[in-house]
Amino acid sequence: QSTWETVQQLPTITALIAEAARGQAVGEFVDAERQLGEASALFPDWPPVIIAEQRLRAAIEQNEYQGAMSEAFKQLSNRAFLQAANAFERALMLRPNDQAAADGLAQVIEAKQQNKVQQQLRVAQDAAAQGDWQQAIDGFTALLETAPGLVGVDNDLQQMQWRLALSEQLAALLNDPAVLQSDDQLTAAKKLILDINRLAPPFGDLKTQLPAATRAITNARRPLGLTINSDEKTLVTVLRLGPDGQLGRLRKQTLSLYPGRYVLTGSRPGFQDVRQEIHLQSGKADQTVTVICRDPI
User: Is 206 exposed, middle or buried (0-12, 13-18, 19+ CB in 10 A)?
Assistant: First the structure.
C-alpha cells in the first residue's frame, strides 16, 4: 500500500500496539500476539511494532521461565525429584546460563541423594530391629556405597556382622548339641551365651533362644548309660575314649558317657570287623547295642 494509506492506518496501528501492551500486562499473550500481527501487517517493519513484538517475546519467555521455576520448586518440596528436575531443565532451555535454574537442578540432585540415603538407612534399621542380620548387613553395606562418609554406619555394619556370627554359632549349637561332646566346643558355647547376654538391642530372637542353649550346655556333662553286649570273643573298642575305650572281650558292660556321637568297633581273628555309630542324646532312654563279629572272612 502507499505511504499515504499507511499513514492513514497509524491510529489503528497505534491502538493495536496499545491493546497488545494491555494484554501483555495481564498475561493474555495469544491476543497480544494476534494484535501485533495485525499491526505488523498494516505497517511492516515499523520500529514501534518491532519493539512491541520484542517486548512481547521477552514477556512470554519470562512468564514461561517463572512458571517452570515455580513448578520446579513446588515439585522439589513434594520430593517429586524427576518432575522437579524436568522443570528446572525447561527453565535452563529458556535461559541456558541461568544460575538460579542451575542451582535448583543441583538441589534436586542433592535432595535425591539424601532421600536415597534415608531410605537405605530406614531399610537397614528396620531389618536390624527385626533381627534379620543379613538383610541389615546388606542394607548398611549399600548405604556405605551410597554415602561412604556417613557417620556411625561402619559401626552399625560391624554390630550386624557380630550378631550374624552369634546367630550362626547359636543355630549350630541348637541344631547339633552333640558338638558339646568336645571340651573346646563346650567352652566356646559358654562364651557364646555370655556374649549374647551382653548384647544391647537389637538382639532379635538371640536371647529368646538362650534357655534352650543353656539346657544343652548343662546336659552336655550329664552322663548317659550305654550298655554293650558281645560274645566274649569279639574285641570291642569305643573310639574317642582313648585307652578307656579299649574294652576288650566282654559279655556285657554298661558305660557312663556324655551325650554325643560315638563309634564302636569290633574285631576278631578270622572274622570281618564290625563298626557302628551311636548317638547319645539327653532326654532319651539309655541305649543298648550289640557288637559281635559274626561273618567269617
Answer: buried
CA atoms within 13 A on the CB side of 165: 10
Order of strands across the sheet that contains 235-238:
246-249, 235-238, 260-267, 274-280
174 contacts: CB under 8 Å, gap ≥ 6: 209, 212, 213, 216
**What cell does 55 get?**
517486548
Compute how many other C-beta atoms are within 10 angstroms of the C-beta atom of residue 75: 19
Please give the Cα distance from 171 to 206 (Å, whole number).
Answer: 10
Q: What are the pLDDT tens digits along the chain (297 aa)? A: 556 666 677 888 888 888 888 887 877 888 878 888 888 888 788 899 889 889 888 888 888 899 999 999 999 889 898 898 999 999 999 999 999 999 999 999 889 888 899 999 999 999 999 999 999 999 999 999 999 988 899 999 999 999 999 999 999 999 999 999 999 999 999 999 999 999 999 999 999 999 999 999 999 999 999 999 999 999 999 998 889 999 999 999 999 999 999 999 999 999 999 999 999 999 888 999 999 999 999
Take residue 210 and report the three cell numbers written for it: 538362650
| Widest pairwise Cα distance in the chain | 145
Nearest residue to 268 (alpha-carbon basis) of 237, 240, 243, 245: 237
Q: At what angle do helices 153-175 and 183-197 cross, to 10 degrees?
A: 140
As to burial, measured by CB atoms within 10 angstroms (0-12 exposed, 13-18 middle, 19+ buried), residue 243 is exposed
**Amino acid at the residue 43:** F
Answer whether 108's CB lies under 8 Å from 88's CB. Answer: yes
Look at the block and give the residue holding cell 542451582. Answer: 103
Beta bridge partners, 278, equal 262
